[in-house]
Amino acid sequence: MRIAFFDSGIGGLSVLHHAMKILPQEEFIFYADEDNVPYGTKSPEEVLDCVDAAFKFLIAQRVGAIVVACNTATSVAVKIMREKYSLPIIGMEPALKLALDTFPNRKVLVTATAITITGEKIQRLIKNLHAENLSELKALPELVEFAERQEFNSAAVEKYLRGELATYDWEKFSSLVLGCTHFNYFKDTLRKILPPHVKILDGNAGTINELIRRTKIKSAQAENLSVEFFYSGRRVTDSAELARLEKFLIRLDKMEAIE
Ligand code: DGL
Questions:
Q1: Residues framing ligand 1 (Cβ under 6 A)
Q2: pLDDT, tens digit, 9 for 90 and up, residues 116-148
Q3: pLDDT > 70: what percent of the chain?
Q4: How far apart are CA 45 and CA 117, in angstroms?
Q5: CATH of the domain spanning 96-203
Q6: pTM
Q7: Rounded to a whole number, what is the distance in angstroms from the first to the last CA of the chain?
Q8: Where does the chain hold its CATH 3.40.50.1860 domain(s)?
Q9: d(CA 221, ligand 1 centre) in Å
Q10: Which CATH architecture has domain 2-91+205-255?
Q11: Hey, which of 113, 149, 252 would you mutate to test ligand 1's pocket, going by the most ligand atoms within 8 Å of its Cβ?
């Protein structure tokens, strides 16, 4: 099946990376809205316009399913896109349920973009999970900028994260949830800063499991992976740009084992 992965930028590669490992026989399209990244600091109306344009493009590519590999776009637009299009549309959900199921009655810090943490969707999730007293939300917008310029583990990244995470009483927390797909590139620095008992969780496996459930595709061996990359509707063919994307995937290989 031809499956599209869509994000504001290169964060969604972390979800695609997981899919490439377990569904290597499928045909993937990766759409990074590089002309409009970041989404997290825009207004919901602006993000909706961007998502609308991306969906029009992807539908014209005759894909069989779209994975919205972006928590921000999911929060703002997934419901509206599902009303508009009948193909399977799979969104992201911060892994709060996973965190609470794994570590009952322990607090969870959900990190995301400003739009995601102020949106209705996350409030509904917290309410449904009765997690009002067990969850805290934190926006980390700079990580999106660092990721886009491939600044993964510089002194500036560490200083930023140490500053943002300094005030939490970690004894009360079981985990930190990566509620933005751009944050997966920083697991090594986060691991360095957080106490060992605080686990780093993301929603990538949950999203791919949902994709498999909705489309009924099955995992199989494949000789050649097929991925086409697009930046805001332009096919990426330039070798320097393809090398840039490859560098992100190599980084994700390294981050995979860090919990
Ligand atoms: N990768 C995105 C997310 O998961 C959004 C980052 C941004 O564009 O601000 O929320």
A1: 7-9, 11, 37-40, 70-72, 113, 116, 144, 180-182
A2: 999 999 999 999 999 999 999 999 999 999 999
A3: 100
A4: 16
A5: 3.40.50.1860
A6: 0.96
A7: 31
A8: 2-91+205-255, 96-203
A9: 31
A10: 3-Layer(aba) Sandwich (3.40)
A11: 113
